[in-house]
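hiii, so i know i said id send this last week but things got crazy w the move. better late than never?? heres the sequnce for the chain we talked about at the cafe, plus the structure i predicted for it. fair warning i was half asleep when i ran it
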Amino acid sequence: MSAPRAIRKVFLAIEQAEGAGARVRRSIGTPQLRNFSPFLMLDHFSIKPGAGFPDHPHRGQETITYLLSGGVDHEDFAGNAGTIEAGDLQFMTAGKGIMHAEMPRQNPDGSANVGLQLWVDLPTELKKCEPRYRDLRAKEIPQVDVDGDKVHVKIISGNAAGVDSVKDLAYTPVWILDIEIKPGGKIAQPLPKGWNAFAYMLEGAAEFGVGEGQTHADQYNNVVFDREGDVVHATVPGIAKNGARFVLIAGQVLDQPVVQYGPFVLSSKEEVYQALMDYQTHSNGFERADGWKSEIGKSMVH
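okay and structure toks below
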């Protein structure tokens, strides 16, 4: 028998300033939810033209960027460059070190570029791996309709209704499902046993859980599930005016210490000091940072 996952907590992601002129709603990586292994941070970002994340380093984690509207350019010191557009994802493994810039596209109507960025910890033995990128285009993502077409699921990573995703996008096993539920719709979504899981509300409101444990969640709420159980239940009441959209994300728990200093995520203070030293001296993975400036980041230099 499958057991429903209970809800541990529900909380609102508060908007804050980040980067150069960007606005983010951060839910993971705040006092409300820290070190929810393997997840380090979740930002729901809104970047208007003229704002962005100019040249900056990373070490020891992976970032997953899911663009909801607009476009974002990236460029790094290894000569990688590209653009993701609405519905696309980019998986970046920082590994032993990368320096890059992420800048919003200048939309003709001046609209913001909106998306999610999730930071995922790397297993200790992979923190010194070579950096890499993988793009996943919207058209490559399998989709499925369930509950008489009242529920639509994009299977970015993982499995829903017997449909498997594209494999091997991140080193740390993570499931990502983008779920839309119309009024009167419901889903019972299995998740791997023992993994940490949460749902982040993009639009509308939904009910999570079953029976007396059912909990309401509004837009910008993060719903954190207990690790026990293997199915997440979500529904939108038939009387609701609007449907709901959320991402359901689960990840394999890493049994390791997390010491984070800004963009460096390692397993000890000594390794963090080493990362700062390596970055400043352009060594041990940061050699190519010496004198490098991104082309896309120059738009920020006044």
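btw The two ends are 61 Å apart (CA to CA). thought thatd interest u
miss u guys!!
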